[in-house]
Amino acid sequence: MVFPLFWFLFSTISFTLPTQANTFPPCNETEKQALLRFKRALYDSRNRLSSWSAHKDCCEWNGVRYHNITGRVIELHLQNPCLLDYGEISCTTSNFSLGGKVSPALLQLEFLNHLDLRLNEFGGAPIPSFLGSIRSLTYLDLSDSSFGGLIPPQLGNLSNLRYLILGGSNYFSTSKQEPPSLYIENLHWNSHLSSLEYLAMYQLDLHMEVHWVELTSMPSSLSYLALEDCKLDNMSPSLKYVNFTSLTFLSIPWNNFIHEIPNWLFNLNTSLLFLDLGVNQLNGQIPECLGQLKRLKSLSLDFNSFDGPIPSSLGNLSSLAALYLFGNRLNGTLPSSLWLLPNLVDLVIGNNSLVGIVSEAHLKKLSKLKSLEMSSPSLIFEVKSNWVPPFQLEHLSMSSYHLGPNFPKWLQTQTSLQYLDISNSGIIDVAPTWLWKWASGISWLIDLSNNQISGNLSGVWLNNTMIYSNSNFFTGLLPVLSSNVIVSNMANNSFSGPISQFLCQKLNGTSKLETLDLSNNDLSGELPQCWNSWSPLTHLNLGNNNLAGKIHDSLSSVLSLEALHMQNNSFSGGIPSSLRDFTSLDLLDLSGNQLLGNIPDWIGELTSLNVLCLRSNKFTGEIPL
For residues 368 and 179, which has the higher predicted lDDT (pLDDT)? Predict the structure, then answer.
């Protein structure tokens, strides 16, 4: 989980880094020796701390910041170097995590005010209670480092602490067992953190503290509170007032609240800018009182059980840039005030039971809109064929929305789209000539599935990361895939021609394709021996075509396969012995072919195999046990 801490800190913290090391005093010797003891207790497989040498001044050590007048250590930045600003991960497989033990040698650093150990791997070890004795700390981040057990109440002794971030497990952890979760018995220690401004805890167990609202509100300086996926089940709905006088950011999604939105929230009308109550079980109607939070810029109530209409008072939130109401039980028509929010960037209201017509007149004031999610079977989109929207979208999802029967021409005006989902939207039309060239600029996802779109795709080049064109009326040869494609589903169409022309195509680089579904088409011919171009494949479905010939051992080039569907074709010969090397195979369906010979004994040695279908072939001999 990522918190927008970078922006929170940017305006409040700055560092003076040395430009000429010889103009500053040497590191304090006592603190240098303490840091060397701290290093020895750590496991550092990638030698991240190789610069921590007894022969160097610690002002030259990576991750160490010291005061440029006194020479005393004031900050330790030991977060995983794979972690970039905004919480993004730059590494994919390499693990640069520190592990081992957090040594009490840190107690020798009398002026340490900043300790960052994010995204390391401490294997479920408890958070050291001695950290509560480093009274100079103003910043402590132990998140995503696989600490476990009881959060030490001694942290409440850190009266100077301004930023506290706890929870989560390591992104790169290779352990097959989840480390024990962090938990608290009570949050009374939090009330002693009188300087606290930023508190973020996630993937913890806080369910034993029923008074978390009252206790987290005690530090009057608190402006940021995130308690995400913390097993909370009560927001104290009977409370009328809470002392969150400085709170601007409140994020408590992925918990277990089963009640209505509490009244105390509406008293935060002078401060609150960000409110996230998503992925809970909150119920009842969304109260009109939310319109009192007039400074609100982002409101997330998605994936709850709210019913009734969208309150018209949301139109009072003139600063609102993001509204997420997806996945509730909301009904009725969309309030006219919704279309009067001039700063709206993200409007996500799909997967409800909303009804009515949305016209170009409704959208004319939403010029800043970047993300529009209105998937709903009871909403109808009515615009003129020559309509030019006032916005440039990056994300558009209108699945199960009445867009058809004509293919929406206005889409070609949207040149910044990265995600397009117009599946099951009632389109009954020939794909326009501009579609495929235009769609090649959509880098992430395009989903046209479950419509009645027709057209010959021979020679068409597809460049999207994920492409769903299944369940339409497309014809001709299979299109050409860019090496950027990871998922392609072209099932349930009328593609024809030899499959070898597709599988042996010359790629513009190394293929990244992991999922390919060509089932239920009219493809013919034998399987070629071109599988070495498709080694990343994990899911392959060639079922229900007119394919014939033997299944060659060259299929062993795709050893990563987890699911292989080849049913209802005319394959002959035996089961290739190369399949015994598919140690990750979970599903194998060879049914409805003309395979013959004995079922090989090694089939039973595929320990990952859970589904095996061999019916309707010409096998003989005994069934292996």
Answer: 368
Collapsing DSSP to helix, strand or coil, 97 comes out as coil
Cα–Cα distance list, 243 to 164, 228, 235, 246, 247 (Å)? 19, 21, 14, 9, 9
- What is the pLDDT of the chain when averaged over all its residues? 91
For residue 184, give every residue at least 6 positions away whose Cβ sits within 8 Å of its Cβ, in sequence order, or none. Answer: 150, 151, 204, 205, 206, 208, 209
The β-bridge relationship of strands 73-77 and 64-66 is antiparallel
The CA distances from residue 233 to 120, 256, 258, 275, in Å, are 30, 5, 7, 18
Region for 294 from its dihedrals, namely left if φ exceeds 0, alpha if ψ lies in -120 to 50, beta otherwise: alpha
pLDDT reported for residue 132:
97
Retrieve residue 459's tokens: 């020679």
- Supply the pLDDT for residue 269: 87
Token pair belonging to 373 = 């999610």
| Pure H helices in 42-190 | none
Instruction: Tell me how far apart the alpha carbons of residues 612 and 595 are, in angstroms, rounded to a whole number.
Output: 15
Between 180 and 283, the higher pLDDT residue: 283
Q: Is 191 left (phi over 0), alpha (psi -120 to 50) or beta?
A: alpha
First CA to last CA across the chain, in angstroms? 46
As a residue count, the chain comes to: 625
Alpha carbon separation from 520 to 399, 423, 503 (Å, rounded): 23, 19, 17
Give mean pLDDT, residues 190-209.
95
Q: How far apart are CA 387 and CA 383, in angstroms?
A: 6
pLDDT at 16: 41
- Long-range contact pairs involving 466-472 (C-beta distance under 8 Å, separation at least 24): 468/423, 469/493, 470/517, 472/448
**pLDDT value, residue 12:** 41
Check pLDDT > 50 for residue 291: yes
Q: Where are the alpha helices (DSSP H) in 360-479?
A: 360-363, 435-439
- 3-state helix vs strand vs coil in the chain, percent to 5: 20, 25, 55
Half-sphere exposure at residue 598, Cβ-oriented, CA atoms within 13 angstroms = 10
Q: Are 226 and 3 in contact (CB under 8 A)?
A: yes
Name, in order, each residue with C-beta under 8 angstroms of 23's C-beta and a sequence gap of 6 or more: none
Alpha carbon distance 235, 265 (integer Å):
10
The Cα–Cα gap between 402 and 412 comes to 18
Beta strand ranges found along 360-507 (DSSP E): 371-373, 379-382, 395-397, 419-421, 428-430, 445-447, 452-456, 461-462, 466-468, 473-476, 480-481, 487-489, 494-498
The CA-atom distances, in angstroms, between 334 and each of 378, 390, 424 are 12, 20, 22
Rounded CA gap, 96 and 118, in Å? 12
Helix, strand, or coil here: 395? strand
Q: Which residues on adjacent β-strands are paired with residue 164?
A: 140, 199
The more confidently predicted of residues 158 and 507 is: 158
Give 330-347 pLDDT, tens digit per residue.
999 999 999 999 999 999
Are 482 and 461 spatial neighbours (Cβ–Cβ below 8 Å)?
yes
Tell me what pLDDT residue 11 has: 39
- Angle of CA points 263, 267, 268, to nearest 5°: 120
**pLDDT classification of 168: cutoffs 50, 70, 90:** confident
Chain-centroid distance of CA 414 in Å reads 25
Measured torsion, CA atoms of residues 435, 437, 440, 441, in degrees rounded to the nearest 10: -100
Using CA atoms, how far residue 594 sits from 63, 113, 549, 568, 597, in Å, is 65, 73, 9, 9, 10
